[in-house]
Automatic annotation (TrEMBL), chain A:
In the central section; belongs to the 3-hydroxyacyl-CoA dehydrogenase family. The keyword Lipid metabolism applies. Residues 523-605 form the 3-hydroxyacyl-CoA dehydrogenase C-terminal domain. PANTHER family: TRIFUNCTIONAL ENZYME SUBUNIT ALPHA, TRIFUNCTIONAL ENZYME SUBUNIT ALPHA, MITOCHONDRIAL. GO terms for biological process: fatty acid beta-oxidation. This is 3-hydroxyacyl-CoA dehydrogenase. SUPFAM superfamilies: 6-phosphogluconate dehydrogenase C-terminal domain-like, ClpP/crotonase, NAD(P)-binding Rossmann-fold domains. Residues 339-519 form the 3-hydroxyacyl-CoA dehydrogenase NAD binding domain. InterPro entries: 3-OHacyl-CoA_DH_NAD-bd (IPR006176), 3HC_DH_C (IPR006108), 6-PGluconate_DH-like_C_sf (IPR008927), ClpP/crotonase-like_dom_sf (IPR029045), Enoyl-CoA_hydra/iso (IPR001753), FA_oxidation_alpha_subunit (IPR050136), NAD(P)-bd_dom_sf (IPR036291). Keywords: Fatty acid metabolism, Lipid degradation, Lipid metabolism, Lyase, Multifunctional enzyme, NAD, Oxidoreductase. GO terms for molecular function: enoyl-CoA hydratase activity; long-chain (3S)-3-hydroxyacyl-CoA dehydrogenase (NAD+) activity; NAD+ binding. The keyword NAD applies.
Automatic annotation (TrEMBL), chain B:
Keywords: Acyltransferase, Transferase. PROSITE patterns: THIOLASE_2. One of its GO terms (molecular function) is acetyl-CoA C-acyltransferase activity. It holds the Pfam family Thiolase_C. This is Acetyl-CoA acetyltransferase. SUPFAM superfamilies: Thiolase-like. It comes from Streptomyces malaysiense. The lineage of its organism: Bacteria, Bacillati, Actinomycetota, Actinomycetes, Kitasatosporales.
Amino acid sequence: MSTTELLEQASGLFPDEVVTTAHVRHFDLPLGAGRFALITLDNGLDHTKPTTFGPASLANLNAAIDQVEQEAADGAIAGIGITGKPFIFAVGADLKGVELLKEHEHALAIGKGGHEVFKRLAGLAVPTFAYYNGAAMGGGVEVGLHCTYRTVSQAIPAFSLPEVFLGLVPGWGGCTLLPNLIGADKAVSVIIENSLNQNKQLKGKQVFELGIADAIFEGADFLEQSLLWTAGVLKGDVTVERPEIDRGEAWDQAVAKGRFVADSKVHGAAPAAYRALDIIEAARNGDLQQGYDAEDQALADLIMGGELRAGIYSFNLVQKRGKRPVGAPDKSLARPVTKVGVVGAGLMASQLALLFLRRLEVPVVLTDIDQERVDKGVGYVHAEIDKLLGKGRIHQDKANRLKALVTGVLDKAEGFADADFIIEAVFEEMSVKQKVFAEVEAVAPAHAVLATNTSSLSVSEMASKLQHPERVVGFHFFNPVAILPLLEIVRGERTDDASLATAFAVAKKLKKTAVLVKDAPAFVVNRILTRFMGEIQNVIDEGTPVETAEKAVEPLGLPMSPLVLLELVGPAIGLHVSETLNRAFPDRFTVSPNLKAVVEAGKRGFYVYDSGKPELDPEVAALLKQGDVVLTEEQVRDRVLDAVAQEIGLMLDEGVVAEAQDIDLCLITGAGWPFHLGGITPYLDREGVSERVNGKPFLAPGVASVPA
Amino acid sequence: MPRTVRDVVFVDGVRTPFGKAGPKGIYHETRADDLVVKAIRELLRRNPGLDPKKIDEVAIAATTQIGDQGLTLGRTAGILAGLPQSVPGYSIDRMCAGGLTSVTSVAGSIAFGAYDAVIAGGVEHMGRHPMGEAVDPNPRFVSEKLVDESALFMGMTAENLHDRYPSLTKLRADQYAVLSQEKAAKAYADGKIQQDLVPISVRRTTPVGGETGWGLVTADEPMRPGTTLEGLANLKTSFRVHGRVTAGNSAGLNDGATASIVAGEDFARENGLPVKMRLVSYAFAGVEPEVMGYGPIPATEKALAKAGLSISDIGLFEINEAFAVQVLAFLEHYGIADDDARVNQYGGAIAFGHPLASSGIRLMTQLARQFEEQPHVRYGLTTMCVGFGMGATVIWENPHFEGDK
């Protein structure tokens, strides 16, 4: 099939593509370097809608190359360039098109289509130049890699090959060309490390220093200077020198480093990084076509695999659903928040004060029961501001401003009389919290929202004794609050829309991913994690060795093992939450006697790290009283996943959240569960657990899987 | 405190290629501030001896100071060009003589000792800011007959100038225009113009003006080489039925920017900067607004008197060609032939275009090149007419002058 036919067929499968035009414009270069054809990639929209490549877009670029190929052959032009619309070069394949693919052969065609078009840029009668003028990602970066030369703007904010992050490989030449251009070590950094490091982006300067671009120019006249440089290259006045690539042992070491990074991040649970590394490994011989063929196969396999679909699903959850919370009231109802009160001045309260201060930049007042605690809380915030200043993250003026905004007082009436949003972070005990809210209500303005950071108490009950329970909302952060994006916003039985809208507006300013949650025990993340951990604890209590229980869930590729997580949370807190849930749902949530013993013994975790890696603490081992039922890893995994699937099914039945998507969004942003699991429900569906436990999948086919 | 007046020199000047205003023009989708910013950057690249930290001022002229020509362009252009934040800037307006006035204003300050080195420039994007945009003339101008209504329309003032000097016929104006196009074409062929042009990348998103996408502009768009008298004879006289002023014998509506470095001569020498011209004197004069094209004559009289020179001392003239008749009025006044070789050797605004506030510095940049080539010339002048009845003249000395050998 010809490239044109291939792309036409693919285009038929993707009728809603935002099509990129490849404009061709001719002009004379400076210095008398001759006639030049410049291709501009432009989807006709502004910079907030970056240019992408779908099949029709590739066909447009192909047609543009047809034109300049002829002109080059005829001697009508001395060179060919390619650049993007203002602020954007191109950000790669259009993922919406990838989601629609159902057949392996169609997926294969996507890879081939891109290759067939892009690689022509390396085989024309005149040199080709890519001018990375703005954001370049994935296929955008790759189209430039096929060119003879590249320049990059110093003003570029984002340049990456993010495919592995999503569950793909840079499959339009990236895996093959990049190591051959800059060496395997740097290529592994860009393709594997950056992707798995929360999709880290390169800046223009780094693109140049890595050797991806041959020249770098400032943003103000980037294209003019690039074209002047081009004229110099074409006239022979400028020679481009690239360092020799080490194709020896360094290549193996680079690939080995990549595998180590992949293992530490996804534990073998997601295939993309490993497929990319295989291609990089093979690219050492410089056989480009062999590399492109391998990329095609890898792309097609991954596109037809569940991990990518889950990855795209996760990406969309975080990027879209996370920004427009489902079920939130109309934002016009939100009241302005010009001052924040924090009840309590302990560590959690101080961290919250710092967060509100940095994001809202309004006065924040802390209160506590004695001056010493108040001073300590304010002191903590000041010290954190100084740390930010020391790291150069904020300017001295900003530090001065923030420090002046935070105060501490003993008298709530003095502190909260003009506060619009008051959050409590006091001891996790219903009577204490009710008392605190009653005191606050007595002094706070009538419109103030009263928020609680409770992780397990009922918000409705907490509000029940107030004169105005309608203004109480749950505002549940995850530790560390400065880092984990999730904020569970809890609507109590009587919470009104205006208070809830205000809570969502504050969450947005805090740059948190807000999810609306019903006032149910332990809300979402803690309930699922506790059920998950509880089942691990159960099998250990029944007799399965700790090591087997831990290894059983390794194939999920979670950020850490269950017992390491327990250590991070603190065994005492874990025990407390399990007791709360045990009271609510005694049939499903148990309180492990072994965990109780560990907590009572004052142990902070199950492991010691004397050898550098976690080993079961002998003192803990001595405390454990196990039964005699020893399960295999597979049996443990089944039990744990069944429990999780059951719990999520029940939560959805109870209406804890609107949809399974919210569960997954919570797990990704609040517990760091990986993209390739799609949170968890796509994985449970894919592995048949949902069907086995609940008789049906959580998500319709195609939502986070290959469409039927 | 004792004070010594310093000599002020023109160090260097560049400009963007000039474009035609309007939807088909090369700069239709290019911002005015970007044009002047790119000119400033090129100037700095060409003069690495000038430490940007030592620039004392950025003075940028524009006639319509709103939108991308507003916001105190001298300051914003400096920041956008990447100058240190410590370098201040301001905006200037004297309509067509804005750029010329930016040079003379900073020159006065340099001579006084307030500055050492300054960026002076001008920009006008007449496509984005058509002449008369958002103006609000005081009704007293008309009710008290302070000026005739025609004073507000430059083309009508040019017709008025033809009325005043019946010897300045349409034929002479057309002949002058043909000559300007010929001289400009020759200057291009000889590579005189391109050396001071800053290439500008331009984007086009609609096909009305030609191929779409990013392009690069390296030459003036308005030029019409091969213009003939016959061709000009049939053009419409846009400002008056049976008039004399046509699009062919006047400058068009244009987009473009210029920038220059002006410095104290001592500073330029100490920093190894080129000295292309030495300022001798400058003057501005007012005339009846209805015949604003007459302005260069009294302005030149004043400038010559201040310099103690006479017109015969001037070896090269760069006269802005807003209208051919305005140049002819000047030449006739001084008894200089319409085709005198000392006048506008590279052609003028009729060929290159006249983006109002930027043009004065184009005249200087061209005069500086002519000084380099003609060391037997000691003095030259740049002059232009200005809206609402003004004229502006700067007299320059050629530092390459080799005496009477």
